[in-house]
Structure formats: C-alpha cells, structure tokens
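Consider a protein example.
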Amino acid sequence: MAQQDEQRNFRAQYYEKMGFRCVEEKRSLEPLLRESPVDGAKLAQFVRAHLVPGIYRPLVWRLLLKVQPCHAAVGEFVAARRRETYEDTVHHLRVLGEVTDATPAALGCWLGWLLNTGRLVRMTRPQIRRQKDAPQLQVAELVLDLFDCRVEQFFVCCRLWQLQRAALEQLPAQLPWLVQLLEREDPQLAAHLQQLGVLARGDATPLHNWIDTLFCGVLPGSSVERIVDKLVAGAERILPVTAVSLLVTHRRQLLAVEETSAARATLERLSEEDTDRVVSRALDLWARTYKV
C-alpha cells in the first residue's frame, strides 16, 4: 500500500510539473468562476477536491475568504467599503504613531489586524515594538507575494489570521485525532513521539508553531499556497494532516533521537528539500481520509 501511494504521489507530481493536471483543472474551474453569482459552495467543493491553477489562486482566495463578493453586481460597492476601512485603519495607526511610510507592508497589515480586533490597545509599548518579529508576519509575506493591491493584501491577511487563530484554538481537541492518524500511517513513529512528549498540548510544541505560521518558514511559499487552498475552502484539518505528513517524512531523523529536546530541535530546523513529498503526501492523505 505504501509503495502504491508513493507511485501515485510521483505520478501526481510529474503530471503537475508537466502542466497536464493544471490544464484539466483550469478547464473545470473556469465555468465555476464565470457563473453569476459564483456559487461559493460549489467553488469550495472544487478546491477541496482538486488543485487550484496558480493563475486563479488570488481570485479563488478572495471569493472563498469573502474579500470579494460572489455577486459581481455589488463588487464595486463592497470594494469601496473595503477601501474605506483600510484607509481608516492606516490613518488610526499613523495617528497612534505605530506606522510610517517606512513601515514594512507585512508589519502594517499585522498591526492593522491587531488594532481592528482590539488587541493593540491592550499592548504595552515594548510589546508593540516586538511585533516586528511576530511569526504571523510570514503569513503576510506569503499574501504580499500573491496580491498587488494593498486593500486586498490587508483583508486577505486578516481572514487568514482568523483561520489561523481558530485552528490554534481547535488544536487541543484535534490532537487525539491527529495521533490516531499518525498511528495509522506510522505506528512506530507515533509511539516514539508520544513517549518523548512531542505531541503534547503545550504552546511551545512544534505542532503549535507550525499552525501559528500556517507552515510558512517550514515549507516554501509555493507549497504553503497549496495547503492554504484547502484551508480557505473549509478543510480546517488540512493543517494537522500536513503536520502528520511532516512527521512521517522525517521519521528517520525523529526515530534516531532519544530526548524530547533533541526531537523538538530536529522539528524546528526541518529542511525544505522534501517539500514536494511533504505536500503531496499531505494532500493524498487528506483525500484518502475524507474521500474527496
């Protein structure tokens, strides 16, 4: 079974790199996007089951994250309100002295989200200054690479951070399910990691840190985008599934360590060399688990 999965993953990667899958899925996706209004439920179902061609990814994210309405007739009205909200946010941050023309765009988006969610006003000055090192800025950098419009960048970031916080809140409840999935895929590794306490509930665990950044910094942006495709389509468990894939992919290094600190150190310095295997395994595992 494992050999068949590896062969299927290899074929999927090969076809995708050759462009065959993207052509087929582009033809399937285009009619959905041409509908007026766009059927959000059908679009989400498609994204959960198929790859998203890169050329359509920004539009798909805007629609599924409700940054852009599915009804084209109200598009201009919603865009104007979004622009007003963004400009008001930037204005307040400037009045507060938190942003200037020199502030990086990713940091500006993050501070704007903190302001609009009421978190910024509860922070001390040293805490605000430390936000320039917030791990969530990696999510913003991913979005900035995909979108050119500052307003869209801001709202897409805000929606992804909402999903990220929800995923962190759900992690303790999902941990037993994640362990069961790992036990099914690799019983030896699951037992070893549980003995070391790597799958604990603490905030400092690698699992928590991976979800805190939506795997940015652990996987390259092109790989993270494919995972986020599923997340914005409502597949919240794609994040713990990706964590299982990471663990299984690096099983040799993990089985070689005998101390919790060494295991965590191994997971904190994962290489991006096996990114194709990690993401392909994660997507295949998610598809098999939910039979999409």
